[in-house]
């Protein structure tokens, strides 16, 4: 039994290492792309991303993050079931051990999936304009290129695509590795997208979005949740429907808590 568990741990570590390496390589390749009107930027980025069932940039990037999320979740599950070390004076390395570079890569991937995957699905003015987004200098990604890709007509813009983007982002951001730092940083964006999906895109029914919003309300401290919601409401919005739909939602939260 012990040998089987060790084999499972080795497989999980290998899977995690492979998933993280592929995501690092993809983000490094995207960093190398600079805005050039004479170049087909979309084709250049697609060329450096692994093939996926769907062909858009955001979907290929999301597939890489999904693979990493699954690998981390598997490693964390095995970690929780490990026997205590025989020699307590020699601590062993955790199964899910990420470097600072890995964390920077994951944050860069989250930022790109949000901007390239969610922005095309919502009305202009719902989310912070891309040039005004606070982007970590460690990303080292060309802002002009990022904004150009976000405006491509080939980007999926359906409610179903927004559901998939929100699913993938919440999956990775709710992992214990990233939840303390990254989830609060992107909570306002996620709330804006979820409220928009629920109240401004009623077809198909936003069942998954409503469940994800409720889950955030259940697991996050109300102070953190309300702080991000205030940030959403304080942002000038072009959509009257979005603003009006946010008011009863906020009142409901205040009444419940």
Automatic annotation (TrEMBL):
Residues 59-196 form the TANGO6 N-terminal domain. One of its GO terms (biological process) is protein secretion. InterPro entries: TANGO6/Rtp1, TANGO6_N. It holds the Pfam family TANGO6_N. It comes from the Eukaryota. PANTHER family: TRANSPORT AND GOLGI ORGANIZATION PROTEIN 6 FAMILY MEMBER (PTHR20959), TRANSPORT AND GOLGI ORGANIZATION PROTEIN 6 HOMOLOG (PTHR20959:SF1). This is TANGO6 N-terminal domain-containing protein.
């Amino acid at each position: 039994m012990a040998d089987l568990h060790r084999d499972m741990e080795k497989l999980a570590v290998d899977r995690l290492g492979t998933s993280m390496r592929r995501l690092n390589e993809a983000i490094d390749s995207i960093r190398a792309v600079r805005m050039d009107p004479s170049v087909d930027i979309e084709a250049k980025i697609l060329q450096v991303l692994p093939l996926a069932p769907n062909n858009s940039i955001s979907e290929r990037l999301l597939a890489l993050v999904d693979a990493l999320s699954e690998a981390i979740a598997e490693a964390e599950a095995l970690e929780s079931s490990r026997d205590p070390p025989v020699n307590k004076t020699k601590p062993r390395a955790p199964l899910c051990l990420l470097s600072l570079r890995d964390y920077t890569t994951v944050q860069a991937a989250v930022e790109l999936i949000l901007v390239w995957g969610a922005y095309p699905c919502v009305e202009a003015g719902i989310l912070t304009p891309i040039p005004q987004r606070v982007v970590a200098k460690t990303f080292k990604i060309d802002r002009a290129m990022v904004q150009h890709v976000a405006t491509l007509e080939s980007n999926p813009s359906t409610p179903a695509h927004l559901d998939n983007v929100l699913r993938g982002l919440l999956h990775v951001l709710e992992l214990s590795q990233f939840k303390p730092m990254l989830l609060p940083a992107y909570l306002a964006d996620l709330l804006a997208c979820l409220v928009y999906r629920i109240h401004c895109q009623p077809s198909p029914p936003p069942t998954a979005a409503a469940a994800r919003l409720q889950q955030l309300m259940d697991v996050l401290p109300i102070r953190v949740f309300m702080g991000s919601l205030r940030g959403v409401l304080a942002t000038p919005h072009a959509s009257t429907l979005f603003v009006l739909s946010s008011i009863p939602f906020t009142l409901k939260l205040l009444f419940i808590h």
